[in-house]
Design goal:
The complex is a heterodimer of chains A (193) and B (245). By secondary structure, chain A is mainly α. Helices cover 76% and strands 0% of the residues of chain A. Chain A is built from 11 helices and no strands. Chain B is α+β, with helices and mostly antiparallel strands. In chain B, strand 4 and strand 5 form a beta hairpin. The longest helix of chain B is centred in the N-terminal third of the chain and has 19 residues. The N and C termini of chain B lie far apart (83 Å). Classes of the chains: A mainly alpha (193), B alpha+beta (245).
Chain lengths: 193, 245
């Protein structure tokens, strides 16, 4: 291990970012080793296929390497910023794969067949249910709340699309999203108490 | 602003954080929040819940070669533009690999080496100090093998072919300095030309590269080159493989 690598490992993410912005490969390597796993896992959760998840992760990290200096710590943690980049690219990949503007209908089955995201949220959620319950707060939510959160966050659907998909009023979707996030937030706060 | 007005904005905060607000509505909320401490506080309060969502997914180990590809690209781009052997970043490894993969007909994202080639056809063992002994010969089960000369003792190579192309897999390759990469070359009619992809060994000393066009190739070689690769080999081959015609 190089001295530069050892030094980089002792730095916090926020301290690594200026080095990455200055094109320091060792700093970037440490950054990837810290966050590559969760990034790849999130990408896989969204796109549902390993090769596509690799592409998304690679694109996201190269983007960070090229734009690391643009990180604004006032907008949150480096990890959250990185994961938002991964999420956005994964959703883009999902939409690209499903067609530029998939036609949404009021037929749930037709929508689910058109959109791989939905397939993922339904099937993968079942597949990974145990891990999700252990690791995350989604598993603790009522099904109707977790579903809208999953469709929005992991599926990339807008609230209007979700409203049409589920056949419920827009206000109901908004309410479920708010209640879902508030419950997760409350549990996080309890965990810290 | 009335309480009813404010509740309307507050109701949108969760959808906004989840990226589920339509762009116009999201922009409107952002404008409103600039002057509304209540909404900013709501956003701040709910943000940790949003951050928990990606952490809730089942954690998977990323493929090892993803890291190697990333770091090869990063090290290439980190090189000063005027360094020997360096190319402009836009024409870097990433672009070269992407162009090459597009030629192979991979998807639009085109950043991942093509995988999944068919059965192994050629198996080659490299042992330093041995002269090439008659090229490759057919084995009983359809595989062919030979012993070839190389500068790296213990390096072994396996070539998997399909159609007009193939994949060269090396094993027991020593780790490279951060400013060096592996580059493959093919020889046709006595002329040596580079393969349009650079690669590096992983921590276990394994390294692979695609050979998209094996038509007429007489010899496949691998050399160590500066990051970004070279137009012609700058050193002795790490491994050299004769291809039966």
């Amino acid at each position: 291990m190089t001295v530069r690598r050892e030094k980089a490992e002792r730095l916090a993410d926020e301290e690594l970012m200026p080095l990455i912005g200055a094109k320091d490969p060792e700093a970037f390597e440490v950054f990837y080793d810290r966050h590559g796993g969760v990034a790849y896992s999130l990408a896989y959760r969204i796109v549902g296929e390993r090769a596509a998840a690799e592409d998304v992760t690679q694109e996201a990290f190269i983007s960070i390497w090229r734009s690391g200096a643009r990180f604004d710590r006032a907008r949150g943690s480096v990890r959250s910023w990185m994961l938002s980049i991964v999420r956005n690219r994964a959703i883009d990949a999902l939409r690209s794969r499903a067609g530029k503007a998939p036609k949404l209908t009021f037929d749930d089955d037709a929508i689910l067949e058109q959109r791989p995201a939905e397939e993922l949220t339904e099937e993968e959620a079942m597949k990974h249910e145990t891990a999700a319950e252990v690791r995350g707060a989604l598993g603790t939510l009522p099904g109707e709340q977790s579903k809208v959160l999953e469709l929005a966050y992991f599926g990339g659907f807008s609230q209007s699309e979700i409203s049409r998909m589920l056949g419920v009023p827009l206000g109901t979707v908004k309410g479920r999203m708010r209640l879902g996030l508030e419950k997760i937030r409350g549990e996080l706060a309890e965990g810290l108490a | 602003m009335t309480d009813i007005d404010h509740d309307r904005w507050r109701e949108d905060v969760a959808a906004y954080l989840l990226g589920a607000l339509e762009p116009e509505a999201a922009a409107a909320l952002e404008r409103h929040a600039e002057g509304c401490e209540h909404c900013r506080a709501e956003i701040r309060w709910l943000t940790p819940a949003l951050d928990a969502l990606p952490e809730s997914v089942e954690q998977l180990a990323p493929p090892r070669d993803l890291r190697e590809r990333l770091m090869a690209e990063v090290r290439f781009e980190a090189e000063p533009a005027d360094a020997p052997g360096a190319e402009p970043a836009a024409a870097g490894l990433f672009a070269r690999a992407s162009a090459w993969l597009r030629e192979l007909g991979s998807g639009p994202m085109g950043l991942r080496p093509v995988v999944g080639f068919a059965a192994a056809v050629l198996v080659v063992a490299a042992v330093a100090g041995f002269a090439i002994g008659g090229g490759l010969g057919s084995g009983e089960d359809g595989e062919t093998s030979t012993i070839v000369a190389g500068e790296a003792p213990g390096v072994t190579a396996k070539m998997v072919s399909e159609g007009d192309g193939g994949t060269l897999h090396l094993a027991n390759v020593k780790q490279l300095p951060s400013d060096r990469v592996l580059e493959a070359w093919v020889q046709r009619d006595g002329e040596v030309e580079p393969v349009e992809a650079l690669f590096v060994p992983d921590r276990e000393g394994r390294a692979s590269t695609e050979l998209p066009d094996m038509d007429g190739v007489e010899v496949v070689m691998v050399t160590k080159e500066p990051s970004g690769g070279s137009a012609t080999p700058t050193g002795e081959p790490l491994i050299s493989v004769e291809v039966p015609q």
